[in-house]
């Protein structure tokens, strides 16, 4: 009987006449029937009412007779995605049918005596599998291939008591070997499973891309969901006690190896099982203990003997029967250790954010944390999101409004009246403060969402970050327009005086100014990430650096405008400034210093990108950068495609292609002159970066991530220096009789040694073809 | 036809459009050509999906009566109303590579898409597959985005795009696809845990095999 409703067979099987592809269709169907009855123990499927079934085998064959081979009967909603997921009737083909795998898990004897060295080996293999899963592989290709784990979980245990290595009705033989398995390996496995449970729960709580970053799928296998972490921690303690009492059974090395592994697992589970609230309320982490023990695990790894027969893909036959068998993911022990060490380091590091040091420091921490290479793991990225924002609170204690207003104040220093918390106490509707609150609350609601999204986006993988930013800038663009309106209304309510400028009266527009700056920064990040992710090709570099410079210049203009207004509040006589209003003055000084910092940083990047434009344009002119032909497309069409994310942004606008081309190619300027200008820009950029790198952490607002800031500054400086060398070599070659051509020079783009967003051309003189030899 | 030694380049490669009448004899060959480059074979539905609907965009290269190269594509309206061609699979038998056969096949598919009024052509390729990336970049394709861990084996992809026509740059849709859609993917726990990443676990489009 073929099911007409039911258990996850791809829709496609009934839509397409593909059964002809099977050597023996009847056999295939027979197999389907068989497998229905043969639902494995790990899938406790409730019995289905039998009256919902109808045998359609005959009808099915009759209908399929009417189709030609290859003919498609397709529902319009049947997508490619579904086609890909559809089960192919290639049953009995061992490559495609995981049901064909021999069920090794059935014959596996989990209580077969093992050498203690083998137990150490299994634990280390498990660690590799665990980390492979952390890094994005499915459980079915990692931990679940372990037959010990399978034995413990396949009976769907609800309590720890029910987790056993013994298959049913086995006589208890109390040998030392068996005790080692029961008292050490079993607790280790259970704790590992519980760790996975915690990691999975955490990841499901936040925004992480399923299957792309991480696979949360557990194939209906409970990861000891109903067991409390504490019970498992106690089990580990018992394991340690047992080990102590059995010390004389083992060599010192093996004893220690086992002890380190259990202790490490204990420390790890301890931290992984923490609720976010516990971190918020000052839980003391054990990440350092984990790290230290991990070092000892690493050293004792060589004592272990791996047991390959303890792992088998055959488990997939009951886990994911709709997909072909997939190989076990092999992650080396060294890689597993280093990624787990990284996890511990980062898990500890991120707790710094809980000590709030102002919003700018917080944003900078996120930016630098996520720029780490290699990127933080999905678990860590998820945990950081939870630490930052949970249950409508930022860092467990602050409202979105508090942090958002801090951010506006730190940047724009608006008149005190605008964001004064006392405004909210005003109940009289005719009081302007009442109306101010109405509007600022709207802003918190609207901008708060975008602000939280910004943090969340920063926690995504780099490729996603760039893609999400392309969406986000549209949101910030409309937010800017909306906020400008609110600003206009607010300036009436705060009775803001116009500043007289040569272009007429001017107002501060604090909220929309704040929005605009964030929008510009995100536009800038999109370009920077384009370089980092190698989305841009060398022939596009000059143009993309031109845009980077364009956005940074716009930002400079905008910061200067903000600074002009920030300097006005509070309006005090010098006498007053010395007196009581110190907080307001301090606030102003802070904002001004931050703006000065931003200006310095922007100036540095502006100069460096300017140098990049000229250097890459010179290389293109000299035909030293290969620009691919385009039999189908044109520069202008490709420009449209490249600038697509920015086309709908109101301000700054995308420059028309012909103007852009002239600006980048700069045909009026001689090549040597371009290089001279580049070299001057490099000198200036170096000065700026030098200055930046000498700033103290407070001024740079990097109190939470000073090291990363220093590293970044160093990489920037290195790009400046590298580019300086390239420009010098090119200039020299250009002036030499041989000239700068493909015959005399080798040009390669060096991404490795420089800042990821500022790759430098490495230009080398070609060696004269040796005449003497041969 | 005389037997070809694998070392000697064949004298003549014949290119032809896929003919659905030949499916019983050709599909298996096409499948095995493409599968040899994949970590996991596509199901028959994936081939049928393309060949039945867009057989006119599928081209084969043959040496005598042996198919040694194939390109499989589709062309349909994409989000935002753009006619997007999509090169789903491209494969050339190893000993026939570096002779421009793949390029020729791709060009035939693009030409057919242009006849079908395509606005652009898209595809994904593994970021380490420099040969394929070069091939497409020489045809004017641009990397539009990077896709993290796109393939089943965990490696990332570039989406490559070839703009064929000016597409009016007014409203919506600054992103080439996913517009407003991708956020729905965050925790797709109901997700059928079967299909391969290669086939676009998130992009609803499908991977790309290697070529030279």
From TrEMBL, chain A:
<feature type="domain" description="NAA35-like TPR repeats">
    <location>
        <begin position="350"/>
        <end position="760"/>
    </location>
</feature>
<dbReference type="InterPro" id="IPR007244">
    <property type="entry name" value="Naa35_N"/>
</dbReference>
<dbReference type="Pfam" id="PF25789">
    <property type="entry name" value="TPR_NAA35"/>
</dbReference>
<dbReference type="InterPro" id="IPR057982">
    <property type="entry name" value="TPR_NAA35"/>
</dbReference>
<keyword id="KW-0963">Cytoplasm</keyword>
<comment type="similarity">
    <text>Belongs to the MAK10 family.</text>
</comment>
<dbReference type="Pfam" id="PF04112">
    <property type="entry name" value="Mak10"/>
</dbReference>
<protein>
    <submittedName>
        <fullName>N-alpha-acetyltransferase, non-catalitic subunit</fullName>
    </submittedName>
</protein>
<dbReference type="InterPro" id="IPR057983">
    <property type="entry name" value="NAA35-like_N"/>
</dbReference>
<feature type="domain" description="NAA35-like N-terminal">
    <location>
        <begin position="70"/>
        <end position="233"/>
    </location>
</feature>
From TrEMBL, chain B:
<protein>
    <submittedName>
        <fullName>N-alpha-acetyltransferase 30</fullName>
        <ecNumber>2.3.1.256</ecNumber>
    </submittedName>
</protein>
<dbReference type="GO" id="GO:0120518">
    <property type="term" value="F:protein N-terminal-methionine acetyltransferase activity"/>
</dbReference>
<dbReference type="InterPro" id="IPR000182">
    <property type="entry name" value="GNAT_dom"/>
</dbReference>
<feature type="domain" description="N-acetyltransferase">
    <location>
        <begin position="16"/>
        <end position="165"/>
    </location>
</feature>
<keyword id="KW-0808">Transferase</keyword>
<keyword id="KW-0012">Acyltransferase</keyword>
<feature type="region of interest" description="Disordered">
    <location>
        <begin position="177"/>
        <end position="212"/>
    </location>
</feature>
<dbReference type="Pfam" id="PF00583">
    <property type="entry name" value="Acetyltransf_1"/>
</dbReference>
<feature type="compositionally biased region" description="Basic and acidic residues">
    <location>
        <begin position="180"/>
        <end position="212"/>
    </location>
</feature>
<comment type="similarity">
    <text>Belongs to the acetyltransferase family. MAK3 subfamily.</text>
</comment>
<dbReference type="InterPro" id="IPR016181">
    <property type="entry name" value="Acyl_CoA_acyltransferase"/>
</dbReference>
<dbReference type="InterPro" id="IPR044542">
    <property type="entry name" value="NAA30-like"/>
</dbReference>
């Amino acid at each position: 009987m073929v099911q007409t409703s039911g258990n996850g067979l791809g829709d496609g099987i009934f839509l397409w006449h593909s059964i002809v592809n099977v050597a023996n269709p009847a056999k295939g169907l027979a197999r389907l029937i068989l497998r229905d009855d043969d639902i494995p123990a790990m899938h406790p499927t409730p019995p289905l009412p039998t009256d919902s079934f109808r045998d359609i085998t005959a009808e099915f064959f009759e209908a399929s007779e009417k189709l030609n081979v290859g003919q498609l009967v397709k529902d319009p909603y049947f997508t490619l995605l579904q086609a890909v997921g559809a089960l192919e009737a290639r049953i009995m083909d061992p490559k495609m049918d995981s049901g064909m795998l021999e069920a090794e898990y059935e014959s596996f004897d989990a209580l077969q005596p093992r050498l203690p060295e083998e137990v150490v080996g299994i634990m280390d293999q498990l660690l590799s599998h665990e980390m492979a899963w952390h890094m994005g592989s499915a459980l079915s290709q990692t931990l679940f291939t372990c037959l010990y784990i399978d034995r413990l979980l396949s009976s769907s245990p609800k309590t720890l008591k029910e987790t056993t290595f013994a298959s049913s009705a086995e006589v208890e033989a109390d040998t030392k070997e068996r005790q080692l398995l029961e008292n050490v390996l079993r607790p280790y496995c259970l704790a590992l499973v519980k760790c996975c449970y915690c990691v999975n729960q955490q990841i499901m709580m936040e925004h992480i891309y399923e299957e792309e970053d991480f696979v949360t799928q557990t194939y209906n296998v409970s990861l000891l969901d109903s067991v409390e972490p504490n019970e498992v921690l106690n089990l580990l303690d018992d394991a340690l006690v047992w080990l102590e009492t059995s010390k004389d059974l083992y060599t010192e090395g093996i004893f220690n190896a086992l002890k380190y592994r259990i202790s490490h697992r204990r420390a790890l589970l301890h931290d992984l099982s923490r609720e976010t609230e516990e971190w918020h309320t000052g839980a003391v982490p054990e990440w350092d203990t984990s790290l230290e023990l991990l070092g000892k695990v690493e050293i004792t790894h060589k004592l272990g003997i791996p047991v390959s027969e303890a792992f088998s893909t055959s488990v997939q036959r009951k886990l994911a029967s709709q997909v072909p068998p997939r190989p076990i993911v092999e992650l080396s022990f060294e890689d597993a250790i280093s990624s787990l060490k990284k996890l511990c380091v980062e898990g500890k590091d991120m707790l710094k954010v809980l000590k709030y040091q102002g919003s700018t420091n917080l944003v900078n921490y996120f930016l630098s944390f996520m720029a780490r290479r290699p990127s933080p793991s999905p678990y860590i990225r998820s945990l950081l999101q939870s630490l930052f924002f949970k249950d409508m609170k930022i860092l467990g204690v602050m409202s979105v409004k508090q942090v958002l207003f801090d951010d506006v104040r730190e940047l724009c220093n608006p008149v005190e009246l605008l964001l004064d918390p006392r405004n909210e106490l005003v109940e009289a509707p005719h009081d302007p403060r009442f109306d101010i609150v109405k509007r600022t609350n709207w802003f918190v609601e609207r901008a708060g969402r975008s602000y939280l999204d910004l943090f969340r986006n920063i926690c995504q993988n780099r490729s996603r970050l760039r893609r999400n930013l392309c969406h986000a800038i549209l949101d910030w663009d409309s937010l800017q327009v909306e906020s400008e309106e609110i600003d206009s209304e607010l300036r009436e309510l705060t009775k803001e005086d116009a500043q007289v400028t040569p272009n007429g009266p001017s107002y501060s527009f604090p909220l929309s100014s704040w929005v605009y700056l964030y929008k510009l920064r995100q536009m800038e990040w999109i370009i920077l990430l384009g370089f980092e992710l190698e989305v841009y090709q060398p022939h596009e570099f000059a143009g993309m650096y031109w845009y980077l410079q364009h956005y940074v210049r716009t930002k400079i203009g905008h910061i200067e405008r903000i600074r002009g207004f920030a300097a006005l509040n509070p309006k005090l006589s010098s006498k007053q400034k010395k007196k009581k209003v110190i907080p307001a003055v301090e606030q102003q000084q802070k904002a001004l210093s931050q703006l000065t910092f931003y200006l310095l940083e922007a100036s540095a990047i502006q100069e460096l990108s300017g140098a990049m434009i000229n250097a890459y344009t010179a290389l293109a002119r000299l035909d030293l950068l290969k620009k691919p032909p385009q039999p189908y497309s044109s520069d202008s069409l490709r420009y449209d495609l490249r600038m697509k994310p920015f086309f709908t942004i109101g301000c700054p606008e995308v420059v028309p292609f012909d103007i852009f081309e002239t600006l980048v190619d700069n045909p009026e300027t001689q090549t040597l002159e371009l290089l001279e200008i580049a070299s001057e820009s490099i000198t200036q950029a170096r000065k700026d970066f030098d200055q930046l790198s000498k700033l103290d952490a407070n001024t740079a607002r990097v109190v939470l991530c000073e090291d990363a800031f220093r590293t970044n500054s160093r990489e920037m400086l290195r790009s400046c220096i590298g580019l300086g060398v390239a420009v010098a070599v090119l200039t020299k070659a250009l002036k030499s009789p041989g000239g700068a051509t493909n015959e005399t020079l080798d040009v390669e783009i060096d991404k490795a040694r420089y800042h990821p967003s500022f790759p430098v051309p490495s230009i080398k003189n070609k060696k004269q073809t040796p005449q003497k030899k041969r | 036809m005389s037997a070809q030694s694998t070392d000697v380049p064949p004298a003549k490669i014949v290119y032809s459009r896929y003919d659905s009448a030949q499916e019983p004899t050709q599909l298996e060959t096409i499948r095995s050509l493409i599968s040899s480059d994949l970590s996991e074979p596509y199901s028959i539905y994936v081939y049928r999906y393309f060949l039945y609907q867009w057989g006119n965009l599928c081209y084969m290269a043959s040496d005598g009566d042996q198919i040694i190269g194939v390109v499989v594509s589709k062309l349909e309206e994409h989000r935002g109303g753009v006619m997007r061609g999509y090169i789903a699979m491209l494969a050339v038998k190893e000993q026939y590579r570096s002779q421009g056969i793949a390029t020729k096949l791709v060009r035939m598919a693009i030409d057919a898409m242009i006849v079908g009024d395509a606005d652009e052509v898209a595809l994904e390729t593994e970021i380490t597959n420099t040969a394929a990336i070069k091939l497409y970049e020489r045809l004017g394709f641009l990397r539009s985005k990077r896709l993290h861990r796109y393939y089943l084996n965990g490696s990332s992809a570039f989406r490559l795009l070839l703009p064929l026509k000016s597409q009016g740059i007014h409203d919506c849709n600054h992103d080439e696809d996913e517009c407003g859609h991708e956020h729905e993917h965050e925790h797709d726990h109901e997700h059928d845990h079967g299909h391969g990443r290669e086939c676009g676990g998130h992009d609803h489009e499908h991977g790309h095999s290697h070529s030279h």
